[in-house]
Amino acid sequence: MLITMVLLFAFMYFFMMRPQKKQQQQHQDMLNNMKKGDKVVTIGGLHGVVDSIDQDAKTVDLDLDGVYLTFNLTAIRTVNGAANGTPAAGTAAPAAKDDTPANDDSADTPADDDQSAADDSETNDDSENKD
């Protein structure tokens, strides 16, 4: 019974606790290596550029296209690299964007216009017959 408990604890440590600690350490290293001018993404999804970092207060000021906001350092999800496009140390370069155009559903086709006009005329005919 005691051996089973020890094996269960060892299993939990190596497959649950240890990877989480490793991930926390990587995140802390990323925050410690963050510098002014790095592009970052917050946990709320805001994208901005680091304007200043206050290690004592554990805050960071972000420039969000002219709007300056102050966040806790723990609110930074990822550091994408310097604003000039070079990746930060320990982070991967952002993936290239796909240049294929998006499907534009807002454009109406002539067939759609004809169908909607036919629907309108049927509605008008029905209302005229009721009188």
Automatic annotation (TrEMBL):
Q: Where does the record place it?
A: Cell membrane
Question: Which Pfam families would you find in this protein's record?
Answer: YajC
Recorded hits in NCBIfam families, A to Z, give: yajC
Here the segments flagged for biased composition (Acidic residues) are 101-131
Q: Where is this region: Disordered?
A: 82-131
| Record-annotated membrane-spanning stretches | none
Q: Which organism is it from?
A: Lacticaseibacillus mingshuiensis
Which family is annotated?
Belongs to the YajC family.
List the InterPro entries. Answer: Preprotein_translocase_YajC (IPR003849)
Sorted keywords for this record are: Cell membrane, Membrane, Protein transport, Translocation, Transmembrane, Transmembrane helix, Transport
User: Does Transmembrane helix show up as a keyword for this record?
Assistant: yes
Biased region (Low complexity) positions are: 82-95
Record's protein name:
Preprotein translocase subunit YajC
The way it spans or sits in the membrane comes to:
Single-pass membrane protein
